Amino acid sequence: MKFTVSQSSLAKALLVVSKGMATNSTLPYLSGIYIKAAEGTLEFQTANLTISIRHRIAANVEEPGETVVSGKVLTSIVKTLPDAAVAFDMAQGSRVVEISCHKSRFRLNTLDASDFPEFPAFALERSIELPSALLSEMVDKVYKVTSRDTSRPILQGVLLSVEENTIRLVATDSYRLAVCDSNVETSSTDEAFVTIVPGATFHDVLSSPSMTDQILVGTTESQVVFVFGNTTYVTRKIEGNFPNYRQLLPSNCNTSVKLDSGQFGAALKRVSVIASSNPSVRLDADVDGHLMGLSASSPDRGESSEMLDADIEGNSMSIALNFHYVLDCVNAVAGTDELTLELQGSMQPAIFKSYGKINYLYLLMPVRM
Questions:
Q1: What residue ranges define each of the domains in the chain, with the CATH number in brackets?
Q2: What are the pLDDT digits (tens) for 50-85?
């Protein structure tokens, strides 16, 4: 195997596939990068027990071949190289690859490429093409709400549905719920496209440096497949039924508070400095004074409070919420001016809403005051 490729192109390719490397695996192949050189093209692959990534780039290939090298070592080397041609040379039957760039030389031990896991074969049952920038923005708003509890894998997923040119993403960890939707021209048919994608994987895919304007999302019986440009990303589908989130959404509210999202977020950050051991912040909606009060207390730090002007309709009401979760909501709607808070009662879920190109709903369970 012998080829030459630019450092910048190689570094980007390694960054694309690095998300597929296992970090703590005892199997060296799962922390390695498979490289195949053939007919002016380099193919890179990584695989762990959940995902497989394949990415192709152009290169000057003199002798075809394939090998597996340590992903961590190769990535560390390439990052330090100057932006110049990088040459790979491995004699047939050898277990050592020689890498040279400018005045630098490296000799890396390799693994037998024939033992590397074969890239998953797939025949898509359903697929849809979506605008990647919009989908990425939507995923950013919901994926942090997915659960970290491995005993309930369904809550680690994001529900993706596309129907009648409406994209909707839903995520929940049982303490909070995030829903966002947007209207867009898609390649959808009359039948709704619905699947559940692991939240962290969904975010990694949309953050790929090789992302194109459009992304194809497809499903098989057991896989979710993403295809964009020269990159293919295959992940295991989360099996099971996603919780019926619609039954959690009330049809009306007793108190509606319209807030400036920027001012509310800044006030929340100031007040929550006190809330260390007790991560709750109390919100008091004063209808007569048109004020929203924020307050927090801590036995070892003291107390804090702040008042905000607010447009309030309905009844005066108080509720306590986990400020970490509220900040996640505020960060998700960054860039929008108005945030609406709807309350049913002090011990019933609070609902934040924001409207725009992407409509956003965030339901949060209260804590005891």
A1: 2-115 (3.10.150.10), 126-162+184-240 (3.10.150.10), 249-364 (3.10.150.10)
A2: 999 999 999 999 999 999 999 999 999 999 999 999
